Amino acid sequence: MSAETLEIVKEQYQAGKAAFERGQYRQSVECLEKASALVDRNTRFGGEVQIWLVTAYEAADQKKEAIALCKQLDHHPSYEIRQQSRRLLYILEAPQLNRRPEWLTQIPDLGTIADNEGKTRLGNAAAGKKSSSGSLSGAEPVDLSQVNTKDNRFIWVALIGILLILGSLVWWGF
């Protein structure tokens, strides 16, 4: 393999890993497939590229391709690559557990927040300016008739105790 080809493989490999880590699994698969096509698959580096490709396939919901590539890697010359492919194959072929809907938390799509962010802020500011109190916090005034304002005896006991301690310290000259 020439130095230029090796450089292209390394660039595609790094781009694929970076895309995977950003959650762009389809792009990761594309980059890693390009790197895998150019690299010598029987080298340790070629095996690493293919292991990453298996992981990207799984993340991109291409489970059949991931399992097929794992089975190919089971005959790789590198012991570490074979061992890693067996572990991945075990995970990929494991049965899916049934999960009840109440066990899961639905995460809303936050991709549209950036589009509506300016509108929301302007809407909140306009609503805040319309409030009669003049504050933007939007907090309602508290009805003091609902608040317990009775004296607490503990406060008086604590104050008397502190005064006794301070008085005794002054009397004894500490």
User: Helicity range of the residues?
Assistant: 55-70%
The tally of beta strands, per DSSP, is 0
Reported for the largest beta sheet, the result is: none
Averaged pLDDT: 83
Question: Which consecutive residue ranges, at least 5 long each, have pLDDT under 50?
Answer: 126-135
Level-1 CATH class name of the domain at 3-92: Mainly Alpha
Order of helices and strands: HHHHHHH
**Structural class determined from secondary elements:** mainly alpha
* Cα-to-Cα separation, first versus last residue: 87 Å
Can you tell me the CATH topology of the domain at 3-92? Serine Threonine Protein Phosphatase 5, Tetratricopeptide repeat
- Give the radius of gyration: 33 Å
How many distinct helices? 7
Strand content: under 5%
Please state the second-level CATH architecture of the domain at 3-92.
Alpha Horseshoe
Shape: elongated
Protein name: Outer membrane protein assembly factor BamD
Organism: Floridaenema evergladense BLCC-F167
Region (Disordered): 123-142
Biased composition (Low complexity): 123-139
